[in-house]
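Minimal example, chain plus protoporphyrin IX containing FE.
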Amino acid sequence: MDLSTYFIDEEYGFLLSNPLTVLPKPYQIWVEFARNIVQQLENHELRRSIRQLPLISEDAGLQSYKQLRLGRMCLIFIVSAYMWQEGDEHAIEVIPMNLAIPLYNISKRLGLKPIISHADCVLANWQKIDPTGPFEFSNLKTILQFPGGRSFDSFVLLTAEIEMGFCPGIKAIVKALENVENENIDELIGNLNIMREVIQVTADCIFRLHDECDPHVFYNEIRPFLGGYGGDNSPFPDGVVFEGVSDEKFKLSGGSAAQSSSMQCFDEALGIHIQPEKKNFLIEMRNYMPPAHKSFIEALARAPSIRQFVERAENERLINAYNGTVAELKQFRDSHIKLVARYIVCMSNKAKRSAGVRYQAIEKTGTGGQSPMQFLKSIRNSTSSSQLSNT
Ligand code: HEM
């Protein structure tokens, strides 16, 4: 498997490598506008000034992949800010054509849904402070921001660091599949151990979020701008209209790290059996990933099964290595569940107790009608029960 075929970077994995920060004229106006969102939201001026943005319907001047990603990211940030500027009650059902048409067209060229996603908010939204320095939190800044200041930056950049951390694990998965084909047990043990270490390091990163990102700020100031369109608790249950694109309404999921390709790669590579209705949600999230990344996960699902090879080999060291990696994945999910308990469940309970909540829609679940916690715990339990018995 050649990673570059799947738009997976040798150094940065699923992250977009060195994203652009400038677009050619006339598109640069989107960058300048998007970089000013937070201030305009504070002044409640954003909707008025968006209506004055020119309609640039022709996107042919954006030629490279990175230009398209930056153009899309700017439009995505502007649209989210437009929709949610005044909370749920005053959310607007129609995306104006000066944003809707270019966003729709560019997203179509990229094979992405025309709504905010992990691919925009995290994968393409980082820049090194010192370009010659390392890729680490202290040397990173975001390109575009929503409100939330330091908490927003930490939420995005630590998640980006996790994606970067997963990169050696993705390479180890590819090698592990070769080991299965060549029946090379020793090397397979080595690659399973690399996968385990990688997951352990990224789980540590999850803990750092607790120190750097304020749950109150996350819940009340950041999360609203990640909202989707449509569904029972949404201010627009039938979805939203993209003016000038179609009269039909679009129902779309909002941004979530459930759209990260990394964890789904580990699940497929390790043969984690997830209950069908939970898996359906994860499969649906693949439609919000860059198409090449989705294809990579699908290729892993079709590849010879590492799990079945481990079962057949009846080698104690191999089974231990496999189980160790699965245990680490379960541990990662435990840490993630703690994050969700603190950043969503506690904050949602607090919000229910206090009057004047501006954003009801964020209570909704995108996880097939069940609470996010039930969903996450079920996947965590499926992970731990995927361990093999060592008899
Ligand atoms: C404040 C931080 C975070 C919060 C509040 C949060 C919340 C959630 C929620 C509510 C879900 C359920 C699905 C949904 O509603 O979209 C979810 C799923 C998921 N999240 Fe997060 N998340 C956070 C950070 C992260 C990070 C840093 C990662 C790592 C890349 C991550 C990876 C995932 C994955 C892979 C899923 C799918 C379920 C699974 O495979 O276990 N999340 N998250």
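The first strand starts at residue 94 and ends at 95. Strands lie at 94-95, 127-128, 140-141, 240-242, 249-250.
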